[in-house]
Amino acid sequence: MKIAKSILAYKVVTDTEHHTIKNGRSSFLIIKNSGGYNAYIMTVIADTSYLKGDIKKLNNNSYNKRDGNFSGVVIYSTVKGKFLTA
């Protein structure tokens, strides 16, 4: 899977109060490449400061598009759970 580096952001999350699974959403991705198709899981976990109580703001973030003021973490993995790196 080739992912543009600008899409991924890595940071160590130690603040469990502001980064919880209730602030997250996972999406199933099917990506076409020259050899066929591959499946992945994209998990978006937003900061509470970004959501401001509106969980629907997660819908503004997808594989192809991020909300300009999104703050949080995005994690990509295979369907078997192996984490991907850029």
Would you give an account of this structure?
The longest helix is centred in the middle third of the chain and has 4 residues, at 48-51. The chain has a 3-stranded antiparallel sheet with strand order 1-2-3. It has a domain at 21-78. The chain has 86 residues and is mainly beta. The chain is elongated, with a radius of gyration of 13 Å. The chain has one helix at 48-51; strands spanning 24-33, 36-46, 72-78.
Q: State the low-pLDDT regions, or none.
A: 1-12
Number of strands: 3
SS-derived structural category: mainly beta
How are the strands ordered across the major sheet? 1-2-3
Please report which band the strand proportion falls in: under 5%, 5-15%, 15-25%, 25-35%, 35-45% or over 45%.
25-35%
Question: What is the straight-line distance between the termini?
Answer: 9 Å
Helix proportion range = under 10%
Tell me the radius of gyration. Answer: 13 Å
SSE string, helices as H and strands as E: EEHE
Q: What average pLDDT do the residues reach?
A: 81
Helical run tally:
1
Q: How is the biggest beta sheet arranged?
A: 3 strands, antiparallel
Shape: elongated
Structural features:
86 residues, mainly beta, three-stranded antiparallel beta sheet, 1 helix, 5% helix, 33% strand, disordered N terminus
Layout of helices and strands:
Elements: E1 24-33, E2 36-46, H1 48-51, E3 72-78
Antiparallel strand pairs: 1-2, 2-3
Question: Quick gist of this model?
Answer:
By secondary structure, this protein is mostly beta strands.
